[in-house]
Design the sequence.
């Protein structure tokens, strides 16, 4: 059986189960009411896309910077990296968002919700990225640095031509997974009243009392973002593939 | 080359690996370092190759001492070639790109000039057919021969080879030793660490026996293998050649 056929089969089976479940609860659909608010869904979805893209770039940069700190021989830098990673990974994003928005952003006079949301989300995701990057760099054997030094590469060239190309291949799958999480985690920004996809769906629900009709499009909307990302990651993995 | 090592000491944590080692060679082309594992051969070779800095002592090739700061050492390493036991090829690059990397990035050749430079050696050592393979697709012997070429194509003053055949089966060992023998015939200077005593005998101008972080005996191949009366050296050869 081909892989494509297997995937289609599993999706079809799952869909059949969902349809069966819905048919048993005798739910009365009201798509017409929700359709009225299609603009709101689209606007929310686009906001989520924009938030995610911005956080994706920022969190990768923060993650890289924090990974450098974690690797640093300077004990102060190492401590900064370690405390950041442990604090962020050990606390709920919800709490970080509330403190970030109502306390820290207010204290420094930052009022743009969108900017605060992207920053908090990036700091959150960056901590996970940092550990992924650190692990990827640490997985390259010391003998590779030896060989690079032996041929006279500078430390910077060693990073650029020897370490990074090998580390990228290692971190690609976990980074893609982290980015998928980031897109879904952006739904929590609804708690600081950014009218992104999830908040808008919640509002449609409160206007129409059509819960499933409001939230099913939400699931589809997130899948539209996360599935292509997974596909892209698999394609890149294939391109970087080589035996070691 | 003429090598002068005085008072060379190297420690890792509390372990003394080289203990005030001294060695002065004549004007020679090939120096072979032999001796028991853990005796300090590889540590000495890494210092000679400019990869490690000793805690004390000095090394001079042809009268010019090795520097101690990393920037000067890097300039020194550009002028020599090092070959490792485990090949240490870059697995993400093809064999050809492994050769081109130092030429283009360290020695400033254009891509075309670098490709032209590596063609003749690849053909001479029957590696052209494998040039576009990644290291994982090469046999151990092919990997090590590419690694030797990577060190060689930058036209170094001399090569440092650290047990280049220890990870290879006998057939591949023969293939790599043949290449090193050919380099000797071409006039390449090198310092070789090896357990292949037959080969050492053939190729060495001088042999130094290293044990317990010191030079226990040193002389021409003939003096060392046939006439050495240092008991530890005789015992070692007796065991290994038996």
Sequence:
């Amino acid at each position: 059986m081909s892989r494509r056929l297997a995937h289609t089969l599993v999706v079809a089976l799952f869909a059949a189960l969902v349809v069966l479940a819905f048919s048993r609860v005798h739910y009365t659909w009201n798509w017409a009411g929700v359709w009225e608010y299609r603009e709101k869904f689209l606007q929310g979805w686009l906001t989520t896309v924009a938030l995610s893209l911005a956080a994706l770039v920022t969190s990768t940069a923060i993650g890289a910077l924090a990974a450098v700190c974690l690797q640093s021989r300077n004990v102060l830098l190492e401590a900064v990296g370690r405390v950041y990673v442990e604090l962020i990974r050990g606390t709920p994003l919800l709490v970080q968002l509330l403190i970030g928005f109502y306390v820290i952003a207010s204290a420094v006079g930052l009022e743009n919700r969108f900017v605060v949301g992207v920053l908090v989300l990036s700091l959150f995701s960056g901590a996970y990225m940092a550990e992924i990057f650190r692990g990827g760099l640490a997985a390259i054997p010391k003998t590779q640095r030896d060989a690079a030094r032996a041929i006279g590469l500078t430390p910077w060239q060693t990073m650029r031509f020897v370490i990074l190309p090998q580390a990228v291949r290692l971190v690609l799958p976990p980074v893609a997974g982290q980015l998928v999480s980031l897109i879904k985690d952006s739904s929590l920004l609804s708690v600081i009243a950014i009218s992104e996809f999830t908040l808008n769906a919640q509002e449609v629900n409160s206007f129409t009392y059509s819960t499933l009709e409001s939230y099913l499009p939400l699931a589809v909307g997130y899948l539209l973002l996360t599935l292509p990302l997974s596909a892209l990651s698999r394609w890149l993995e294939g391109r970087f593939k080589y035996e070691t | 080359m003429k090598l002068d090592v005085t008072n060379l000491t190297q420690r890792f944590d509390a372990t003394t690996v080289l203990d005030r080692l001294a060695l002065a060679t004549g004007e020679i082309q090939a120096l072979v370092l032999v001796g028991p594992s853990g005796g300090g051969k590889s540590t000495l070779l890494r210092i000679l190759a400019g990869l490690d800095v000793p805690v004390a002592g000095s090394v001079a090739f042809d009268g010019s001492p090795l520097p101690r700061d990393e920037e000067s050492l890097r300039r020194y390493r550009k002028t020599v070639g090092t070959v490792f036991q485990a090949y240490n090829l870059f697995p993400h690059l093809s064999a050809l790109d492994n050769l081109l990397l130092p030429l283009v990035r360290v020695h400033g050749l254009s891509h075309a000039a670098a490709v032209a430079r590596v063609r003749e050696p690849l053909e001479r050592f029957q590696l052209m057919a494998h040039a576009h393979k990644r290291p994982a697709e090469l046999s151990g012997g092919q990997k090590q021969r590419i690694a030797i070429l990577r060190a060689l194509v930058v036209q170094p003053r001399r090569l440092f080879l650290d047990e280049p055949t220890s990870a290879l089966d006998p057939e591949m060992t023969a293939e790599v030793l043949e290449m090193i023998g050919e380099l000797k015939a071409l006039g390449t200077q090198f310092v070789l660490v090896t357990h292949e005593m037959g080969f050492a005998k053939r190729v060495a101008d001088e042999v130094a026996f290293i044990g317990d972080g010191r030079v226990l005996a040193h002389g021409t191949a003939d003096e060392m293998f046939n006439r050495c009366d240092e008991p530890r050296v005789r015992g070692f050869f007796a065991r290994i050649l038996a």
Remarks:
- Chain A has one domain: 40-239.
- The radius of gyration of chain A is 22 Å.
- Chain A touches chain B through 20 residues (CB under 8 Å).
